[in-house]
Structures are given as structure tokens and as C-alpha cells.
Inverse folding.
């Protein structure tokens, strides 16, 4: 599934800058020596207990096959949702600024409630939040 949905989408206004990867290419190869990181602090705070059990069981299986399973810490993860919501709202407002200005009744109430606050923030002012997103992404790659 990842191979199908991964990579560039010409209809996506914020496409991935990473080259498309064939995620099936390594299926069937051994996992010995592969490093697998599990972000316990955040992940297990928000997932169903059955999913947590399945993740931990999968980790045991991978360890049994020679993978190195480690707990990882993603710095600033607790800020990721507010930062993402801010960036999305401001970016969405920029995309729909003309419609908001000239034809707001064509936008449903829920979307309008998310886009309206962005009218008071110019996209250039959202750079600090973009830097916040970059810091979170960078810390997760360590």
C-alpha cells in the first residue's frame, strides 16, 4: 500500500520532496541488524491497548529475528499537534483566501471555523511554526 500512495502527488499542494520508494523491494529479506525505534512516550499515550500489545508483540518477533529494537524519544513531540494545526490552518487559509473573501458561504461551517482565524495571520508570519515542524522532524530522524 505504501508503494502505491508514497511519492509525489500532482494534486497535493504540499507534496513530499523525497523520491518515491518501492517499499516491497526488501520483502522477504532478513531483518538481522535492522534498527527499529518505538516512540513509547507519545505512541502508547494515544493508542488502543490492543494496538499497543500488537506493536510490542511485533517488536518481540523482530528481536527474535535479529533486529535491534530500541525505545526512541522524539523531542518536542508534545508540540507537534498544535504546530501542525496552526500551519494547516494558515496554509489552508492561504489556499482559500479568495473564496473566503468573495464567497465564504460556499465553505461548510466546520471548515470555515478552521480557516477564519488564519485570515488574521499572513503566511510569512507562520515561519516560526514551520521551524517548529522542522525541529520535530529533525529530532525524529536521529
Amino acid at each position: 500500500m505504501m508503494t502505491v500512495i508514497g511519492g509525489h502527488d500532482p494534486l497535493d499542494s504540499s507534496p513530499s520532496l523525497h523520491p518515491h520508494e518501492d517499499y516491497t523491494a526488501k520483502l522477504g529479506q532478513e531483518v538481522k541488524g535492522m534498527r527499529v525505534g518505538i516512540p513509547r512516550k507519545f505512541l502508547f499515550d494515544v493508542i488502543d491497548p490492543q494496538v499497543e500489545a500488537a506493536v510490542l508483540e511485533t517488536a518481540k518477533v523482530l528481536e527474535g529475528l535479529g533486529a535491534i529494537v530500541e525505545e526512541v524519544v522524539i523531542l518536542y513531540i508534545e508540540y507537534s499537534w498544535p504546530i501542525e494545526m496552526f500551519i494547516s490552518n494558515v496554509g489552508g487559509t492561504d489556499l482559500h483566501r479568495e473564496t473566503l473573501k468573495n464567497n465564504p458561504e460556499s465553505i461548510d461551517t466546520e471548515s470555515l471555523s478552521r480557516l477564519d482565524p488564519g485570515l488574521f495571520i499572513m503566511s510569512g508570519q507562520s515561519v516560526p511554526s514551520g521551524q517548529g515542524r522542522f525541529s520535530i522532524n529533525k529530532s525524529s530522524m536521529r
In short: Residues 80-102 form the longest helix (23 residues). The chain is about 50% helix and 5% strand. The CA atoms of residues 51 and 57 lie 10 Å apart.
